[in-house]
Design brief:
- This protein is mainly alpha-helical.
- It contains 7 helices and 2 strands.
- It has one domain.
- A two-stranded antiparallel sheet has the order 1-2.
- The protein is globular, with a radius of gyration of 16 Å.
- The two termini are 23 Å apart.
């Protein structure tokens, strides 16, 4: 087992803790988080949101590289030595990572902020916290790291909007999971070309 695989394996229990924490918080606060199989319209929104997220992330990442140079990424470092790990991370994103993070950031955080401040402040606040959550995934210059997390914040705005529009947390879960899976498939293809 290489270092990247070990790091990935050690991170999975943390995602279970995130899921458990979010679930516990939602129960404690009696916050409803509707979840159901997406309707045809919701499925189309998932597809459009994944496409918009990937295009936005690739475009903003190119801009970030121009403005601030390269940054290191925890995931990039993990998969560099084992490209197949990118595919495992992609699958784990669909099964565990996206459900855990979306339950926390869309269900708990955005749901609670919506009660207090309304939809758009909730979307913005949850997305800002989501981007901050991911700051530790990057290294390099401070501005490069902030801009890299900003890319995540922008795609998170799309996911928050999708949740508000549908009221179904399955929509941002699927969008997030398929977005991550798409990026991991692209990484795998680049690393094995």
């Amino acid at each position: 087992m290489n270092d990247g695989t070990l790091q990935f394996a050690l991170g999975l229990p943390g995602q279970l803790l995130v899921f458990g924490f979010a679930l516990g918080y939602l129960r404690w606060r009696s916050l409803p988080v509707p979840v159901s199989l997406p309707s045809r319209t919701e499925s189309l929104l998932v597809g459009a949101s994944v496409l918009a997220s990937v295009v936005a992330a690739l475009g903003l990442t190119a801009l970030r590289r121009t403005l601030a140079g390269s940054v290191t990424s925890t995931i990039g470092g993990m998969v560099a030595g084992n490209p197949s790990l990118a595919l495992m991370i992609g699958v784990a994103s669909v099964i565990l990572i996206a459900p855990a993070e979306e339950l926390l950031f869309r269900g708990a955080v955005q749901g609670r902020l919506r009660e207090r401040f309304g939809a758009w402040p909730a979307i913005t606040g949850a997305s800002t916290l989501f981007a901050g959550w991911h700051l530790l995934n990057f290294g390099g210059s401070a501005i490069g790291t902030i801009l890299a997390a900003g890319v995540i914040g922008v795609v998170s705005l799309l996911w928050g909007y999708a949740y508000e529009r549908t009221g179904n947390v399955a929509v941002p879960v699927l969008t997030h999971g398929l977005y991550n899976l798409t990026l991991m498939v692209i990484s795998f293809a680049e690393l094995t070309a």
